[in-house]
Write a structure and sequence with these properties.
Elements: E1 5-11, E2 17-21, E3 24-31, E4 37-44, H1 47-56, E5 62-68, E6 71-84, E7 92-100, E8 114-120, H2 121-134, E9 142-144, E10 153-158, H3 166-174, E11 181-188, E12 194-201, E13 212-216, E14 220-224, E15 235-242, E16 253-255, E17 259-261, E18 274-278, H4 285-301, E19 307-311, E20 325-330, E21 339-351, E22 360-367, E23 374-375
Parallel strand pairs: 9-12, 13-20, 15-18
Antiparallel strand pairs: 1-2, 1-5, 3-4, 3-21, 4-7, 5-6, 6-7, 8-10, 11-12, 14-19, 15-16, 15-17, 17-23, 19-22, 20-21, 21-22
Helix pairs in contact: 2-3
Length: about 375
């Protein structure tokens, strides 16, 4: 393992350090919009190291912080491990898989429910996370900034009898038309304290830093620009909750108003492509229609997600840049006249230098998309 990386294992609830173990094969990634992951292997060369690893690395109870040059680079929760014995001169090992701290919210139920009318959507998210941590044993130290508002007021009712998963509630609230983005950001503050905080962005998360220019030839060592038409749609329907509470009568789900991309089929020439989504807990027509519009917009505009690989040293890339603007310049056979485009950084996957391999980062980029023209 490169000496610039360190794996720190802590108690999830108190963040007290349990141990700092040697680690090999470190990989970690973080994203806006989905859970990030980390993996590494602890070589077990003797019974003492085996005991240390066994006591410090407990799935669902141990937090792991990956530091790079003393700075917090990644933070999350150990969820799975695998022990392998020594064989043919090879030491035993403990393989560790972890996920970013937002994964904890997928293991919490909104058991008391939540109801509110005309509440700013960011306050709904904050109140739900705050409630999650107010329950005995539920506080893992996620810090909440109550200052930011979106100006978008929502009516929401989450019944305790429906046993909503907190992570699902936040994602559904964020993904409606006019919604927001959220993640659990990790960093080290000015006092040296490790911090995990609820980061909200309306309508999206943006870094306050100036744009970063990356070029090929230059820091960019590889890139991929896949285009995926399998999820593209020109027309959309969403299904909601059942509209009939009388079990003796036929039950039909609430349906969104038909919606389509104006001009896509005619005169645009696209074939009709139907898409659907299910929101079995949504009982209001306006809310369901908002989900349908947001889903169609994503299906129409997010068919290309470029990935750029760069040498990490000297590139200026760090996890704190998630949400920032990347200006990408490429001149090669695909772009003989030169590509000069701006993207938003929405994901970062890091691979440390090891055994002659350079330290690299894969950047997941979001193209700037023109607003979709929706019609009903």
């Amino acid at each position: 393992m490169s000496g610039m990386y360190r794996v720190v294992l802590c108690d999830l609830r108190s963040d007290q350090i349990l141990d700092v173990l040697p680690a090999q094969g470190i990989k970690c990634d973080d994203y806006i919009g989905k859970t990030g992951a980390a993996s590494f292997t602890v070589p077990v060369t003797d019974p003492t190291m085996a005991r240390r690893a066994r006591e410090a690395v407990i799935p669902a109870r141990t937090a792991v912080w990956i530091e790079r040059n003393g700075e917090v680079w990644w933070g999350g929760i150990v969820w799975t491990t695998e022990r392998t014995p020594p064989a043919r001169g090879r030491p035993g090992a403990l393989a560790v898989q972890a996920a970013t701290f937002d994964s904890y919210l997928a293991h919490r139920i909104l058991k008391d429910g939540w109801t509110g009318t005309g509440v700013d959507q960011l306050d709904i998210a904050r109140q739900i996370v705050d409630w999650t941590q107010s329950i005995k044993g539920g506080d893992i130290g996620i810090e909440i900034d109550w200052a930011q508002t979106s100006g978008v007021l929502r009516d929401r009712a989450y019944s305790r009898y429906d046993l909503y998963v907190v992570r699902d509630v936040l994602d559904q609230l964020a993904n409606v038309e006019g919604g927001f983005e959220w993640r659990i950001r990790t960093y080290r503050d000015g006092s040296g304290r490790r911090v995990k905080s609820l980061q909200l962005g309306y309508p999206i998360i943006r870094s306050s830093r100036t744009e970063l220019v990356l070029s090929s030839p230059g820091p960019v060592i590889d890139y991929k620009m896949p285009e995926d038409g399998t999820a593209r749609a020109t027309h959309w329907h969403s299904r909601g909750a059942s509209t009939n509470r009388n079990q003796a009568q036929p039950s039909y789900p609430l349906m969104s108003a038909p919606i389509y991309i104006d001009g896509a089929v005619e005169p645009g020439g696209w074939p009709r492509l139907d898409g659907t989504s299910d929101y079995t807990s949504v009982e209001k027509q306006t809310t369901l229609d908002g989900h349908a519009r947001a889903d169609l917009t994503r299906a129409w505009t997010t068919t290309q997600v470029p990935t750029v690989s760069v040498r990490l040293d000297g590139s200026g890339i760090s996890p704190g840049l998630l949400g920032s603007t990347i200006r990408l310049r490429i001149r090669d056979e695909w772009f003989p006249d030169g590509l000069d485009a701006r993207y938003r950084l929405i994901g970062l996957a890091t691979t440390p230098a090891e055994r002659g391999r350079p330290e690299t980062a894969d950047l997941l980029l979001e193209p700037a998309a023109a607003p979709a023209a929706l019609a009903t």
